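Dear Dr. L.,

I hope this message finds you well. Following up on our conversation about the binding site, I have prepared a predicted three-dimensional model of the protein together with NM2. For your records, I am including the exact sequence and ligand specification that went into the calculation, followed by the structure tokens. Please feel free to forward this to your student if that is useful.
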Amino acid sequence: MAQQPLLSLPEFQNVSMATLVVKEPLNFWGGQRVKPKHEKNAEAVYEPATGRVLCDMIPCVEEEVDQAIKSAHSAYLQWRKLSGMERSRIMLEAARIIRERRDEIAKVEVINNGKSITEAEVDIDIAWQCIEYYAGIAPTLSGQHIQLPGGSFAYTRREPLGVCVGIGAWNYPFQIASWKSAPAMACGNAMVFKPSPMTPVTAVILAEIYKEAGVPDGLFNVVQGGAETGSLLCHHPMVAKVSFTGSVPTGKKVMEMAAKSVKQVTLELGGKSPLIIFKDCELENAIKGALVANFLTQGEVCCNGTRVFVQREIMPQFLEGVVKRTKAIAVGNPMLRDTRMGALISKPHMEKVLGFISQAKEQGAKVLCGGERFVPSDPKLKEGYFVSPCVLDNCRDDMTCVKEEIFGPVMSVLPFDTEEEVLERANNTTFGLASGVFTRDIARAHRVAENLQAGTCYINNYNVGPVEVPFGGYKMSGFGRENGQVTIEYYSQLKTVVVEMGDVDEFF
Ligand SMILES: NC(=O)C1=CN([C@@H]2O[C@H](COP(=O)(O)OP(=O)(O)OC[C@H]3O[C@@H](n4cnc5c(N)ncnc54)[C@H](O)[C@@H]3O)[C@@H](O)[C@H]2O)C=CC1
Ligand SMILES: C[N+](C)(C)CCCC(=O)O
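The resulting structure of the complex is given below.
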């Protein structure tokens, strides 16, 4: 079927790098795009691969946040009454439209985020798969019947929470909006979503697609803004839940704000995940796995395995293979199909990542490859925020590059001798988002998985994230889960109904 242009988005037709300028309003509530009330506090949004201004992000003020939440609430009152089958049908239609327009959405994501087109397409695929998955679950939501003495009984109803807020990070803009809205909507909730101020463009496309698929006006809304708008959302009395993806310091603030009115919270925070490579592994797979664990989306992935522990006996072979493959990564124009690594999100972030690399060198790490600003030959891309992927050797556990989340293309390699030692070192962190192990010994693999303190453990691969599988953190990487069946628990509440079939006992 021929691709239709996105609803009311003439500027997104035939998009290409270095040309798109977004002028349309990026807020969406009451079933339509809404112009910002005033242009105060507008912030420039950049195209990371060129450093060019793509659009302005104009933060929503209190009155606008209030309008969006009220519009969500009125849609919620209708949506919650639908059966799971009815909700499912609409969500399946949304998934179908995304699938049909995937190439176009992926291009806009590349322009706004800087990641390669190949990765952006996968992200959009994961987004529609997530909506399809929760559309499949919606009709299965049900309660329980419990028989009580004397013919009396109780039953439980799985009910929605109400208006849920989603607050997103900039690394997976469209995917995060889908991961949050799909389970929320399947359970009968409405959502107000705030994307990161650096990636404001694609959430509104999702809103238009949901509308086209048939959700009631107001069911999925987008408000733009940064910390201030986010905090208005977290404080609003009509909000029942906040699902947040971002850094640990902001996550703590979100939790504090939500606590004031006892809102439920899901926190998907950062990480510094260990990847443990034993000498009995299949080495080529471990090398490929280490690259996937570190260099997707320019290393800006929360669950990346950035502490790569390698058993001492195989260190030389591992380093040789990893450096060879890392040097071969094609960095540059993210819109080209052969490119494997695009641009970091912003100039300050690029400088921060380069700062981590200089500090690592000062602390004694050895750069085996990359770690420098990369300037592509294409003149359009000269101001882009590219960094060549970096492998650091001679790392120690006490170095900053090993302790702190860099969120850039930097792999720190650390030698180890025994399983016991590596488990202790791997767990010696306040984070606990993910972990990985490469070994051919199946008993060891499962023993290590059991003993790693992290929400996910990948055995003989890394960063594999099918939507059927729960994702979320231990320790300061957060709590609650996204994806998988369990996420229904985080977007619904259980009501118990107790039914008396006889007379009330005379107690008083
Ligand atoms: N566990 C996960 O699933 C993921 C975690 N992350 C983490 O996110 C970080 C990078 O993303 P950033 O956008 O820089 O994080 P951030 O914490 O600065 O911002 C995240 C979101 O929170 C909003 N925000 C900021 N201050 C707020 C406040 N006071 N109240 C409410 N909302 C507020 C931001 O506008 C943005 O939408 C990394 O540390 C990374 O580890 C990123 C992606 C996925
Ligand atoms: C890479 N992937 C898709 C498995 C996880 C992305 C999580 C995130 O950083 O939002």
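In brief: Residues 1-7 have pLDDT under 50 and may be disordered.

With kind regards,
A. P.
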